[in-house]
């Protein structure tokens, strides 16, 4: 039963038995809340109440857009894989952006991160990410952290490196 104090009380459990629990995150009233552990176990004691505290923290949400710069025009580039890696934690996620180039990610634990466009796809576009990896930090705030404007600009590979490519006319060997 769920008491008015917010505690969930489970009675009539078998003594000395190990119970494995999974936290159902979809049942939480706030989508920004994330348990410290999604799965845990405990062993029941006979004729005793056992208090089990599950720490929750608020996560962050990031959003931005991937732009492609060609011939002086900047447009949103969709269908790309973005690799998000934690610098200060072991978070790693690959997300796809939308057709207009925008993307968002929820449930980001506090910490420092990098975002990069999949290098294989950059090769197909013959482009590079301007300024290299995009770095940001999700802070541990009581209301959660919302980071907007994490935009990535892709430029032609020759423009970023300063290299000049000259195509010579093809002459067949004699």
Question: Overview of this structure, please?
Answer:
With 174 residues, the chain is mainly beta. The chain has helices spanning 119-125, 157-161; strands at residues 18-22, 33-35, 39-43, 56-58, 60-70, 73-76, 81-86, 92-96, 102-108, 111-117, 127-129, 134-138, 145-147, 152-156. The strands form 4 sheets. Strands 5, 6, 9, 11, 13 and 14 form a 6-stranded mixed beta sheet that branches. The longest helix has 7 residues, at 119-125.
Helix % is under 10%
Q: Tell me, rounded to a whole number, the average pLDDT.
A: 86
CA-based gyration radius: 25 Å
How many strand segments? 14
Largest sheet: 6 strands, mixed
Low-pLDDT residue intervals, each spanning 5 or more residues: 162-170
Number of helices: 2
Strand content: 35-45%
Oligomer: single chain
Distance separating the two termini: 89 Å
Short key terms for the protein model shown above:
14 strands; mainly beta; four-stranded antiparallel β-sheet; 174 residues; 2 helices; single chain; six-stranded mixed β-sheet
Write the layout of secondary structure elements.
Layout: E1 18-22, E2 33-35, E3 39-43, E4 56-58, E5 60-70, E6 73-76, E7 81-86, E8 92-96, E9 102-108, E10 111-117, H1 119-125, E11 127-129, E12 134-138, E13 145-147, E14 152-156, H2 157-161
Parallel strand pairs: 5-13, 5-14
Antiparallel strand pairs: 1-3, 2-4, 5-6, 5-9, 7-8, 7-10, 10-12, 11-14
Structure, briefly:
7% of the residues lie in helices and 41% in strands.
């Amino acid at each position: 039963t769920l008491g008015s104090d917010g505690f969930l009380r489970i009675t009539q459990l078998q003594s000395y038995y190990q119970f494995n629990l999974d936290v159902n995150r979809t049942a939480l009233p706030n989508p920004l809340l994330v348990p410290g552990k999604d799965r845990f176990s405990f062993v029941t004691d006979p004729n005793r109440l056992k208090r089990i505290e599950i720490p929750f923290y608020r996560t962050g949400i990031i959003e931005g857009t991937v732009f492609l710069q060609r011939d002086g025009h900047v447009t949103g580039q969709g269908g790309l894989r973005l690799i998000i890696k934690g610098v200060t934690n072991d978070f790693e996620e690959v997300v796809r952006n939308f057709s207009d180039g925008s993307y968002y990610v929820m449930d980001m634990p506090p910490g420092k991160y990098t975002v990069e466009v999949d290098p294989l796809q950059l090769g197909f576009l013959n482009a590079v990410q301007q300024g290299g990896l995009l770095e940001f930090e999700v802070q541990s705030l009581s209301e959660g952290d919302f980071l907007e404007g994490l935009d990535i600009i892709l430029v032609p590979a020759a423009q970023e490196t300063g290299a000049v490519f000259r195509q010579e006319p093809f002459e067949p060997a004699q």
